[in-house]
Amino acid sequence: MIRLQFDAEGYSVICGTEQVILLAKEFALLRFLYDNRNQVFTREQLLDHVWPLEYPVERTVDDHIYRLRKKLKSWNTLRIHTVRGYGYSLTLTDVQRPIHPSLYDQEVQDAVHELFRKYHLLGQGNSIVALAAQQEQMGFELSPFYQMYTRFVQADILWFLEREDFALKDRLYWMLLLYTGTAGVTDEGLSMCERALSSRLLSSDQERELRILNILEAYVENGQPERAQEGLPLTLMVMERDDLDKFVMPVALMEMYMHLVANHMEKAAELSDRLEGMLSKAPYLRELGRYRMMRGLMLLRTGDVDNAERLIDEGLDTLDMGKQELLKIKAVCQIRGFLKLCGISPMLEEKYAARYERLDRNNGLTLHRSALRRWLEQTLSGV
């Protein structure tokens, strides 16, 4: 096993022949995590151990973890993991992994992949994350798609920024949706979607999904529901041609949102009834949470603020139950944009602004947004 050498006088750490100079608190944080490796600590626990008798905020831990990861990036055998919704842990990865016969059993690998696929369909991000965490113990290989999807549902922007072992084109689609889903209304986000469509960097499936769904929703979010309406016939044609049953509810939710923004209440109500019927047969957590939120937005249009707030919160709680962190962030962004458009309730605007700020702190959205934007700009440059 590798060993780190710590020099407390110069705040330096040596791994093999490489030395890194740290700041005092970075040094203390790394040493504590190293001395207690393979254990998970909350931000509060790390504050108590590394900043005793001081009063920093929890964001201080996130900032120091971010800087440590950058400074120790070349040390591939050392990893500082984010345990979503809890805290951090440090592991050393050069210990020989146990050999599982199941790694070489195609039937087991196929069965696990099918389980991931089913959880994905059902919108159970919580089950996907839990299963992925058991990879070593259960002895299966996580496909590149589900390596990325597991981090995507958790809105783990930093993971995508750091994973240079995945090619740019493999990360582009996920990082584009992370940016547009967490930044709120931005013209540049919409522009990036349009540039990505003409870039030829996306896979055929990714390009199709961006064209028939994601960019239409981006038009609505940016106050251009008429452009989404113009693109809808192509979406319906492609869905029928390619037999895309899995897109039926997501597209219906996007269309309902489009009509709510355009204040076409009869059409929004028709879609609401249609979605009720679909969800009664297939109550997938991801779509159920988004539908409840959309129903709340519909009630806002009618002036029923109290019931609207209840339904919106039920929708967000359902997304939270399914560990759909990115969709929860995106939903809060949509709620805030809709409230601003309607000008209905300053109190609700304040409430969901505060909720976004909590999500921002917990997920480092502002902290990583500029780096994410730069990465996208560089990848799409020349397109």
From TrEMBL:
Q: What is this protein called?
A: Transcriptional regulator
Keywords attached to this entry = DNA-binding, Phosphoprotein, Transcription, Transcription regulation, Two-component regulatory system
**OmpR/PhoB-type domain span:** 1-92
User: What's a GO biological-process term for it?
Assistant: regulation of DNA-templated transcription
Please verify whether the record's keywords include Membrane.
Answer: no
The cellular component terms of Gene Ontology attached to this UniProt record, alphabetical and capped at eight, are: cytosol; protein-DNA complex
Signal sequence interval, chain numbering: none
What residue ranges does this record give for the DNA-binding region? 1-92
Q: Does the keyword Phosphoprotein apply?
A: yes
UniProt cross-references to InterPro entries, sorted A to Z: OmpR/PhoB-type_DNA-bd, Sig_transdc_resp-reg_C-effctor, WalR-like, WH-like_DNA-bd_sf
